[in-house]
TrEMBL record:
SUPFAM superfamilies given in the database record: C-terminal effector domain of the bipartite response regulators, CheY-like
InterPro entries to which the protein is assigned, alphabetical: CheY-like_superfamily, Sig_transdc_resp-reg_C-effctor, Sig_transdc_resp-reg_receiver, Tscrpt_reg_LuxR_C, WalR-like, WH-like_DNA-bd_sf
Alphabetically ordered keywords of this record: DNA-binding, Transcription, Transcription regulation
Entry's Gene Ontology molecular function annotations: DNA binding
Protein's name in the database: DNA-binding NarL/FixJ family response regulator
Keyword Transcription: yes
PANTHER family: NITRATE_NITRITE RESPONSE REGULATOR PROTEIN NARP, TWO-COMPONENT RESPONSE REGULATOR
Length: 230
């Protein structure tokens, strides 16, 4: 039996303001027009990261729809700008990359939803409806991609751990997972062995570990979210 079209679309509309940002201006315009036609309040469009950040600050949308191709490796820059806002908007991210490092990077950003670039428009509507619940949304297609690449999404506890670490502490953990001895880690980071020991002690406390001997094991558990120092 065919569903009544009005009933079907009523589930897809949200009383919310949306900002659309995609690297390709034409694609951005098309998606914005489709959303607007179906009753979404599209308050702006952007095709560059700096333009996106500027419009987030001026338009103050409740939801931002963007993609890895636009934010590139600058997910942290976007997250920092979002955190400065009094009311942080939800972020729906389309992933159009096969690079495991890029994907791990945006997963760490803990956006509201992750979709695959090949997902149908209906998936976006379902996602927007589901975001009212306080949980991260992963489309089936996106889950298939990260499983294929050997990546798993970070749970809330892991994300809190990662966010508590400084850049230097992340570097220490990364080198530990590579099997480097302490002296070599200190040399690579151009710090003293004493400073290295202090970093390890701080991380041990942040992770609430009984002793530093457990630090390597903990580092290996979050290894996939630790990136090689640039």
């Amino acid at each position: 039996m065919k569903k009544d079209s009005t009933d079907a679309w009523s589930l897809r509309k949200l009383d919310t303001t949306v900002l659309v940002a995609k690297a390709e201006p034409f694609t951005c315009e098309v998606l914005g027009s489709l959303l607007k036609r179906e009753g979404f309040d599209v308050v702006g469009r952007a095709s560059k990261l700096d333009e996106l950040i500027s419009k987030i600050q001026t338009k103050k949308p409740e939801c931002v729809i963007t993609e890895v191709g636009l934010i590139g490796k600058e997910a942290k820059q976007l997250v920092d700008s979002l955190n400065e806002m009094k009311k942080r908007p939800k972020v729906v991210l389309y992933v159009n990359s096969q690079n495991a490092g890029d994907i791990a990077n945006v997963l760490e950003a803990d956006f509201s939803a992750y979709l695959h670039s090949e997902d149908e428009l209906d998936e976006l509507y379902l996602c927007l409806q589901s975001m009212s619940r306080e949980r991260t949304y992963y489309s089936s297609c996106f889950k298939g991609l990260i499983q294929e690449l050997g990546i798993t999404e970070a749970d809330s506890e892991t994300l809190q751990m990662l966010k508590s670490l400084t850049k230097r502490e992340r570097q220490v953990l990364y080198y530990m997972t590579q099997g480097l001895p302490g002296q070599e880690i200190a040399e690579k980071m151009n710090i003293s062995y004493r400073t290295l020991a202090t970093h390890k002690q701080n991380v041990t406390q942040k992770f609430c570990l009984d002793s530093g001997r457990m630090l390597l094991r903990q580092s290996l558990l979050i290894k996939r979210f630790l990136k090689a120092p640039q």
